[in-house]
């Protein structure tokens, strides 16, 4: 895997912000590959992964990397527990949602009302708030059986199966699907 910086051209296989975030640490040929090594890389990744309409700060606040990595593992634990049939930990998600900026109406100088955000937490909480909101949606609104882990046992990537047939099995054909096709072809050939 090339070590290009995230942002433009990042590969996203998750088809959902939260699963893409979980996939920022992955195992390739038995080696752990970490896509985030600095606060700036977290911000660049969010720029590439979020809807362009979401406003992001020009610079990542100190502590963004640690906060993003912690959130990633908290969400991974939530998704995996829910996938195993457990109820999501509402206290954890609610704690995260409480630190996200709230919407409120503010009065402009000319008297007009404008929708703004009030913000009480740390700057990196604001940065990660769109991910926390997406996690709340994923755990409540999506049909969770569509949240899948790639069927390659050596692959750690997750995705949301948005296909009509819901038969998606691989993070991507290029990474794991073709590998599987080749190995089952070899097995058939060896058995013949
Ligand atoms: Zn895979």
Give me a quick take on this structure.
This protein is α+β, with helices and mostly antiparallel strands and about 190 residues long.
**Which molecules other than protein and nucleic acid are bound?**
zinc ion
What's the CATH architecture?
Answer: Orthogonal Bundle
CATH superfamily: Jann2411-like domain
Number of strands: 6
* CATH structural class: Mainly Alpha
Folded structure, characterized:
The protein is of the alpha+beta class and 192 residues long. It has helices at residues 17-22, 39-49, 64-83, 90-99, 123-140, 173-191; strands spanning 25-28, 31-34, 102-107, 113-118, 147-149, 158-160. A two-stranded antiparallel ribbon has the order 1-2. Strands 3-4 form a two-stranded antiparallel ribbon. It has a two-stranded antiparallel sheet with strand order 5-6. Residues 1-9 have low confidence and may be disordered. The structure holds zinc ion (ZN). Zinc ion is lined by residues 150, 152, 155, 157, 170-171, 175-176.
């Amino acid at each position: 895997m090339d070590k290009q910086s995230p942002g433009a051209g990042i590969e996203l296989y998750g088809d959902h912000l939260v699963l893409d975030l979980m996939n920022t640490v992955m195992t390739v040929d038995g080696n752990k590959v970490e896509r985030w090594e600095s606060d700036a890389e977290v911000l660049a990744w969010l720029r590439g992964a979020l809807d362009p309409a979401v406003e992001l700060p020009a610079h990542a606040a100190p502590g963004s990397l640690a906060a993003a990595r912690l959130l990633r593992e908290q969400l991974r634990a939530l998704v995996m527990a829910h996938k195993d049939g457990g109820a999501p930990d509402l206290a954890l998600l609610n704690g995260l949602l409480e630190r996200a900026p709230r919407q409120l109406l503010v009065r402009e100088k000319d008297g007009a009302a404008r929708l703004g955000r009030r913000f009480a937490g740390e700057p990196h909480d604001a940065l990660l708030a769109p991910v926390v909101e997406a996690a709340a949606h994923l755990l409540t609104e999506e049909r969770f059986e569509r949240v899948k882990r790639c069927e390659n046992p050596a692959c750690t990537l997750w995705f949301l199966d948005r296909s009509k047939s819901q038969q998606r099995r691989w993070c991507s054909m290029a990474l794991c699907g073709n590998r599987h096709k080749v190995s089952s072809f070899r097995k058939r050939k060896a058995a013949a």
